[in-house]
Amino acid sequence: MSKISRRKFLKSAAATGVAASSLSLPYAAYADDHAILVGGLHDLSGAIDFAGIPMNQVMALAVDEINANGGVLGKEVKQVVYDPQSNMSLYSQYATQMALKDKVAVVQGGITSASRETIRPIFHRFKTLYFYNTLYEGGVCDRNEISLGTTPAQTVEKLVPHVMDLFGKKVYTIAADYNYGQITAAWVKRYVEQNGGEVVETEFFPLDVTQFGATISKIQAAAPDMVMSVLVGTGHLGFYRQWAASGMKSKIPMASTTFGAAGSEPIIMTPEEANGIITCYGYYPTIDSPANKAWLEKVKAKYPDNTPILSELSECTWEGMMIWADAVNEAGSLEREKVLEVLESGKTYNMPSGQVSIDPLTHHAIRDVYIADLQNRVFEIKEKFSQVQPIDTQQVCNLKETPNANVHYEISLDG
Known about the structure:
Blueprint: H1 6-21, E1 36-41, H2 49-68, E2 77-82, H3 88-102, E3 106-109, H4 113-126, E4 129-132, E5 140-142, E6 145-147, H5 156-167, E7 170-176, H6 179-194, E8 198-205, H7 213-222, E9 226-230, H8 237-245, E10 254-256, H9 265-268, H10 271-274, E11 278-281, H11 290-302, H12 312-331, H13 336-343, E12 348-351, E13 354-358, E14 365-375, E15 378-388, H14 391-394, E16 406-408
Parallel strand pairs: 1-2, 1-3, 3-4, 4-6, 7-8, 7-9, 9-10
Antiparallel strand pairs: 5-16, 11-14, 12-13, 13-14, 14-15
Helix pairs in contact: 2-12, 3-4, 5-6, 12-13
């Protein structure tokens, strides 16, 4: 990962944000009859534009590469982009427009679970193939959706025993108070207990909470061996800063299921605030492989002055476009059923993240995952796990038996 100064990042993000704020109306929504349209539906302004902007940049890079390699079915691919502005009403409006007016061949988009569950049923209804490229809590069972982001059974299951071996068995969990945070916190508890530990407290916070003084005092009193953070969003960055300012960072170590997941936190925060936080994801820019190094060079070449901060979310968006294009070309058709048959064939793809295939039973990715320790704004990879299955979602979803499923299960952790 190239080192980016905090000042440069903030300046770049501000400039990009100003540009993105003008994108409430679509651009490139119409193409000539010979082009194949693909939809990008990411937050380019609003509360989580820090995640959406890099995803959109990487999608554009993938479109360029697909076209440089001859396009899809010998035709040029063109990107239709809308900015839902972190607004669920706009997500619904633009998803409908993409499916019915633009008639895109595929959509890459959605970031939060709320946005996914707003647009997923729309694309299912209108049979517009949909790729969701964000790590999430698991449980979507929908043959029309390909989920490339990791689930708790792929990452949290690996992270918990790793940090318990390092730090101890007494865990204090802090989590965002919504779907992802609640379900992931439950998985943390499950895995801690399976590994002989104890969650002494789980505390939830609305996304707009920015002050954590009382919680820091509670953690200090509880004296856990470690803190597990399932916090989300810019407001919750306050916890990490207040934790460091309180002097607790040097006393109680921390791991997180979310820190740096969208890439921005390690750049926004100082090393003194962020060093030593351990995470587990399906992609880090520091993966030492020819495929990743080549990809990083491509990203830098396309965006030399506003290089996106890369994370699992943006890299999986690249994967989504490249896997879709490969499947269409192999199928010899844009027909959804034929493309799905290729996606369900078990083909393995060599990606910047490592080896990736689509589980035909759940349409979730089987992928390599990594544990990393953040030091001086660089994720130092400590451990790799190959071809990890999404076993949480496999518990509730079998698309061979229920190919018409259209549901997001909340996976039961009872028993």
